[in-house]
Structure formats: C-alpha cells, structure tokens
Amino acid sequence: MSPTTIFRIFEYSQKDQFMLEKTKHTFDQAELELLKEGLKRSNKERFEMATRLYKFQQTMSKASITHKPLSIK
To answer: Which of 10, 52, 55, 73 is the most exposed place for a label (fewest CB within 10 A)?
Structure first.
C-alpha cells in the first residue's frame, strides 16, 4: 500500500466516524424531545394511550396468519 492509499483510508474512516457521531447526537436529541413531550401530557392522555396500546397488543396476540394456496381457475 502506498502512503496515499493509507491516507485515503484514514480520511474515509474519519468522515464515517464524524457521521456516526452526528447521527448519534441527532438520535440523543430526538430522544430528549420525546421525553419532554411525554412530560407535558396529562394523566388522562397517558391513560388513554396506554389503553390503546394494550388493546392493540391483545388484538395482535389473538391474531393468526393463515395461508390459502393460490387456485387458478
């Protein structure tokens, strides 16, 4: 490997590392925003959301996937 190739590999890895750090920062920031929104909700809103999620979970747990073979007429 020539020194130029090694420098290019190092340069790309620094760019990738910067993008990963930027993405991680963005996810951390989004997570904090969601937590702040959650704190603004009233107890009634929290209860209604939990109830909806529970009902959805119950529906999905009872669901079954069936497959009918394709019949060509």
So the answer is: 73
Name residue, tokens 């989004």.
Answer: 30
The token pair that represents 68 in the structure block = 């009918």
DSSP code, position 41: S
Half-sphere exposure of 36 (CA within 13 A, CB side): 6
pLDDT at 17: 66
Output the pLDDT for position 32.
86
**Cα–Cα distance, 62 to 68 (Å, whole number):** 19
- In the predicted model, residues of the chain with pLDDT beneath 50 are none
What residues have CB less than 8 Å from 41, skipping those under 6 apart? 49
The amino acid occupying position 9 is: I
